[in-house]
Fold this sequence. Notes:
Shape: globular
CATH architecture: 3-Layer(aba) Sandwich
Helix content: 25-40%
Mean pLDDT: 77
Number of domains: 1
Strand content: 5-15%
Amino acid sequence: xxxRGERHDIWPMLQGDAQLEMALVPxxxxxxxxxxxxxxxxxxxxxxxxxxxxxxxxxxxxxxxxAPDRVVMLPTDVATRLPYTSRSPTIWVExxxxxxVAKFPNTAHExxxxxxxxxxxxxxxxxxxxxxxxHVDFIFPLTGAGK
Length: 147
């Protein structure tokens, strides 16, 4: 749910999961005292995925708006051990900053992104909207999944 109490289908199998609630901390201030930016979360995601033996690619969609901007490719043996994914070796990721992800989808552009994510999910794709380092840790844990 977002701050307005609206339910999203991003993690339908995890409704009410206490760990998920902790992973989706809406706003966290890093030690340096500045607000965490999307690029910080992206760097952390890339580091985590590489530690799992996978790859992250930035994706451009010519002629298509609102689609996720990253694709995570994991080795099949690692993907099957991840607890909170569809166990797919390919996961589409939309990165947001912590403040934005807490309200997602709030703007017209974000609602269009949300509709595109739903279309992709209906086509069998795994799509995640990630906005904190804790959420990266939750979706892609090192323990039990790494090499």
